[in-house]
Amino acid sequence: MAAELVEAKNMVMSFHVSDLQMLLGYVSLSKSGLKPELMAQALQLVQFDCSPEVFKKIKALNETRFAKKGPEAVASAPGNLPVQIMSKSEVCLNSRDLHPGVKFVQVVLRICYTDISSPQEDQYPPNIAVKVNHNYCSVPGYYPSNKPGVKPKRPCRPINLTNLMYLSSVSNRVTVTWQLWQELLSRPVPLKHPELCKTLVKEKLRLDPDSEIATTGVRVSLIYPLVKMCLTVPCRAETCAPLQCFDAVFYLQMNEKKPTWMCPVCDKAAQYDQRIIDGLLSKILTECKDSDEIEFLVDGSWRPIKPGPDVVDLTLDSSSSSSSSSKEEERPPQKRLCYEKELLSAC
Questions:
Q1: Based on the number of CB atoms within 10 Å of its own CB, is 197 exposed (0-12), middle (13-18) or buried (19 or more)?
Q2: pLDDT, average across residues 339-343
Q3: Which residue ranges does the record annotate as region Disordered (predicted)?
Q4: Which of 91, 140, 148, 264 makes the best surface tag, with the fewest CB within 10 Å?
């Protein structure tokens, strides 16, 4: 019974719209809709209610599709040719057809749910790579987006593997690989020793006799500016000149969707294989938890930069009070009113 179900599914999946409508009409089901909807109904019928009558109907429809036509007229070849010309019927008999009458087979790779009750959409994992018999297959890439803050979209559709398949008895090998940022982060990354990082700081702040400006210190933020969160794994590329580091976790998450591998600090190429973990800054993160910024000094040491007290601007109040007092000082004194003295007669 299981073999008949598999055979029935294979035959139904090769049906056209007219065949699907005839099959659904045979069991009094709705024949309206697009081909994916009709295909889903037919496959559901085969899976849950494949009676012997339904199986015979499917087989009859399949045989009708590949019914042999009348004999075709074959041109007679001259008998004096040194080569043997095979007729069309002989060529068809010698061909390796998977199903009678099927001349072409297309092999596609779908990455979706296996639920056949409804049409499923393909969804690619990040950084997917498909390899068929030692040859990489082309996979649709991302569509670039010019709008800021909009994630690039990727058209996910079935991947055609037909051109890379071996049409012989040799087995074909299909390999699908993808990488997530957790797997990349779990790989060993070279940790630069704190003393080497300290030497690098000294070289950056070394006094240049040809320069008139001397740098006594450089500030480094402990907050990743893109997400406004504290650094967890301070990282930078070996080719990066600034001492400022970026967070390795968020860096891999950004390149998971759109792999650009550009340094978010200096905007230069920072490949995955070139990244290193700053041992000195990792040590500072464990010791300095009250500050969001530090300053490296000339001797390679560092000091935390704590935010100063809040300054209240009293300029407006003082100016208003001073202006009011100055107006009072400039105002002339009031004159005294003089009243005439009158003698009142006694009654």
A1: buried
A2: 44
A3: 306-335
A4: 148
Average per-residue pLDDT in the chain? 75
Question: 277-299 pLDDT, tens per residue?
Answer: 899 999 999 888 888 899 998 88
Amino acid identity of residue 181, one-letter, is W
For residues 218 and 133, what is the distance between their CA atoms, to the nearest angstrom? 54
Alpha helices per DSSP H over 188-288: 194-204, 248-257, 279-287
Residue identified by tokens 């199986």 is 55
Query: Tokens at residue 254, please?
Result: 């950004």
- For residue 268 the two structure tokens come to 């230069």
Q: What is the dihedral of CA 67, 73, 74, 78, to 10 degrees?
A: 170
CA angle 326, 328, 330 (to 5 degrees): 70
298 contact partners, CB below 8 Å, separation of at least 6: 202, 205, 206, 207, 215, 216, 217
Beta-carbon contacts of 241 under 8 Å, excluding residues fewer than 6 positions away, are 266
